[in-house]
């Protein structure tokens, strides 16, 4: 694993790691993180892919993990859109520039699967894999979960962020701390039925411009990504053929999987191998 730092057009730096393939390199893989999740969460999965012949890049969004610019996030300016059009875009350009001629696979977890469609260079991908990536509009949730989402978006996130100048996710035991600009934009999306699609004209969105295979995973016991919300987002990748999988814990002899379970090393022989097979089947079809 090699560590690096990228200068970005937005004027801040982001940290990344490169896991260089130990065999003949098949493709470039970029893992696009969930909200408030450090790139280190995906290191073991990245190393698994490296051992299977891929060169893999992970990174921290601006203000997260190793990309955090200050001891406090007060005054740090970024947004959810910038995470896509600046941060992810910078990583794609760097990776494809370093390994010209290799195909690109983008693996987006949760918001990562959303932001892929906002990054212009995502159109280079031959495959997109989205794991628990969804439309975050609160009405996709049912029952008590819907009330929780309403509380989050109309009270918890805006009020706490205003008090601290950023969202103190670590203090609340929920996630990494989040920059205020990102929270404000994310909150707006999650209170809008069309999510961010009504914020952009067609030329600023790249979902329907990506070709190749889309692999979509949803998880039955996922409290953060209802199946219907995952289907909604997947339907925006209109130019791709879809491989759709809904995972039920009991089918794998498990009690739970949840929003984050697919990337845990305890599931190496199940979910990691499943994703690897999906990647390599499509790779063989392309080549």
Automatic annotation (TrEMBL):
Stored Gene3D superfamilies: alpha/beta hydrolase
Alphabetized UniProt keyword annotations: Hydrolase
Signal sequence bounds: none
InterPro entries referenced in this protein's UniProt entry, alphabetically: AB_hydrolase_fold, Hydrolase_4, UCP037442_abhydr
Molecular function terms from GO: hydrolase activity
Superkingdom in the source lineage: Bacteria
Record-given protein name: Predicted alpha/beta hydrolase
Sequence ranges assigned to domain Serine aminopeptidase S33 in this UniProt record: 25-118
